[in-house]
Amino acid sequence: MAPSDSTVIFRVRGSLEFSCWLESSNVSQSQTSVSTTFSDLRSKVRDESFVFNLCSSAVFIWPNKDCQASVGSVTASTPCGDLQKHVEVEERDGGGRKKRKDRKTVSTVINLTSMTEVTVSDEENLSAPHLSQKKKQHSLAMTLPLDCVISTGADESVGIVCERLIGALCCQLSDMEKVVLQHMKGTAIPVPQPFHFMLPEPNGLVSVVYPANVSDSQLESCRKDLHKKYELPEDRPYFRRANVFQFPDQLFKDGYLRNPHEHLNHPNFEGANLYLVQGVYSYHHYMQDRMDDNGWGCAYRSLQTICSWFHQQGYVERAVPTHKEIQQALVDVGDKPAAFVGSRQWIGSIEVQAVLDQLLKVTSKIMFVSQGSELATKGRELANHFETEGTPVMIGGGVLAHTILGVAWSESSGQIRYLILDPHYTGGEDLQTITEKGWCGWKGPDFWDQQAYYNLCLPQRPKTI
User: Fold this and answer.
1) For residue range 109-151, what is the model confidence (pLDDT) as tens digits?
2) Which positions are annotated as active-site residues?
3) Surface-to-core class of residue 339, CB atoms within 10 Å of its CB (0-12 exposed, 13-18 middle, 19+ buried)
4) What is the pTM of this model?
């Protein structure tokens, strides 16, 4: 089930201590020992002593004891959406400012903690497997990070939700067992780590366990199996670590806004169909990163937004390039002289195309428009791009560059609106200002200089998983 306004996402996190004896000379015995330990852990999850704590509340629920709770108003028959009433909501953001209520409702996320002896807050705190040796036997101890999610309707009962969560935890432990058995080498065992991915309907939110310290490139065959299991096309990634689902209640740590266009109302005119960017990008604009590029860096910022899209869709691992890295790439391909690095010179769509190829190995098509008035006739080409490729488009004309994130287009009338992300914004990461002041917004054909010459850079998706 994909999140919607009426969806409740339950997420339970915690940890379990894994401990067993391995025999270096007997692989079969070691595998049996691992499987027995996982079986014991599944029994522990189903034990009556297993407890859920509703985060930011005093509510404790015993899921295996008919959902007994520490609060009398919570019973097995209570609608699960009512649990949100017990959560203390933080009304201020990380900077101490009051949070604004978004105009667009997001799914409710209800976080639970499974009560265990050790709490793991994030994957950086995971303990590596610890071995101690005794003759030919090795004692293995490690902390397993539990992280399960289910999506349900707000009117589903607490009892059903708890039953599903216990089942999901047991399934996750079984997946961890498979990963450990597949990737263990002698007495060396990887820590299994859970990840969540949002797939196209009808699949919705699914969880996958990967071994820690095994790169995405080494897990390609695993991803191919997942694509077949969920009947997904094999021309784009869905299960790379960069594709991990970002929960609505989680903030990105880098400070950039993601997908501000999702908070806009769409144009409504007769025959209009929407063709939008697919996936996640970050909004890059003037004056970010302690870089004063006001007046000359708009195309660099549009390029950075495009690069962020390829990074966050899992196509590339390299971080979004800086202005100097962009300039150096153009020097390396012979497009600019060495003195270009560190300068304040503009770049255009052709340079953006060259940098994408040099740094990301991404090819792009260039659309030439002799004057801005002709852009109104490019609805079909732009609609096709967003429908098939789904990447942000950089457009440069005169001395300005912008990013096109989509179009609303009527095939019958030819009427068109452009979804524009404007890199010329110089303020802070204030979603309300950005959306209400039009820095991210829908524009008509008159937005373009009717006499100016424009080039559009349309990046193409690599065919890979």
Assistant:
1) 999 999 853 444 555 455 666 555 555 678 889 999 999 999 9
2) 298, 422, 424
3) exposed
4) 0.83
